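Hey,

The postdoc asked me to send both predictions to you directly instead of through the lab channel. I've kept everything plain text so nothing gets mangled by the mail client. Protein one:
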Amino acid sequence: MAGIMDSIRNLFSGGSTSKPPQAANEPDTYRDCLIYAEPMEEGGQWRLAGRIVKGDGEAAKEHKFIRADIFSNRNEVEAATLRKARQIIDEQGAALFK
C-alpha cells in the first residue's frame, strides 16, 4: 500500500520513482581500475549505472556513469555494467580521469 501512495505522491510532487544506486558485492578489476556495478531500480526494472575507480585513498580518482539501458533482471544489468565500464576504460584510457 505504501508503494502506491509513494507513487501517487511522486506524481503530484514531481518526484522521481527511481531509487539510489545499490552497490554490487565485489568490485571487478580491469586494467588497474576497480569497477563497481551500481544499478538503479526504476519501476521494477534496473537502469545501468556504475563507478570506475583508479588509485587508493586520497589519490583515488572516480568516474561515475549512468546509461539509458534498462534491464528486467539485476544479474543482467550488473553484467552489462561491467562490459560497459571495460569499454569506457578501453576507449578513454587515462583521459577518463582528467
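Protein two:
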Amino acid sequence: MTSLATSLPDAARSRLVRAALRLFAEKGYEAATTREISEAAGANISAIRYYFGDKAGLYRAAFTEPLGELPCHANRTLYASLPLAAALRLLLKDFLEPLKRGEEIRWVMKLHFREMIEPTGAWQEEIDAEIKPQHEALLGLLQRRLGLEQADADTHRLAFAILGMAVHFYVGQDVAVALLPELLDSSAAIDVLAERLAGYALSMIEGEARRRAGEPLHGAA
C-alpha cells in the first residue's frame, strides 16, 4: 500500500530523488552515502527514512521514478485496436517520450548502466515492470500482422530489432547529440524520430511477412 508520505507531492522528497539519481549514477549504490545525498538535496538525513524507509528504498525511487508513469502501459489496449502503422507510431512515440526530459534522462541511463555493472536487483524489477510489457505489446502487433497464434523465435527477434532502434537513442544519446544536435533538441524532433522509426519498423515487418511467405526480398540476388 502506498503511504501518505509517498503519495503526496513534496519538494523535499523530489529533491532527494533527483540528488540520489545523480549521486548513485556517479558513484554507485555502495559508494554514495545517504548523508551526501541529503546534503546535496538540502534535506535532513532523517527525511530519507521518512519518505523511503532506508537507502535501498531511496535507490529504488531514484531508479524508477524519474521516468514517471510510462504511457506504454496505459495504451497497450489501444495499440491492439489500431491499424498496424498507427499502432507502431503511437507505441514508438510512447517509448521515446522520456527523451523529452533532457538532462534527467541522461542520469537515468547512467544509473541503468551502473546497475548492470553493479547489480542490486533493481534491473530485474525494471525488466518485469517496464521492458517485458513493452516487448509483449509489440509482439501482439507482430502476431496479428503475421497471422501467428503464438510468437516464435523470429517474432521475438523482430520485436527486439524494432525496439532496439529506439533503445539506441537512449544508449547513444550523447553520440546522437554530438553528431546532429537537432535530432533530439526538442519535443517536436523526438516526435519526428518516432514517426520515422515507425516507418522503418513497418518496412521490417513487411519484409518478414514476405520472407515467411517465401517471396523474394527487395534487393536480394
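Summary for protein two, as requested: DSSP finds 13 helices and no strands in the chain.

Thanks,
C.
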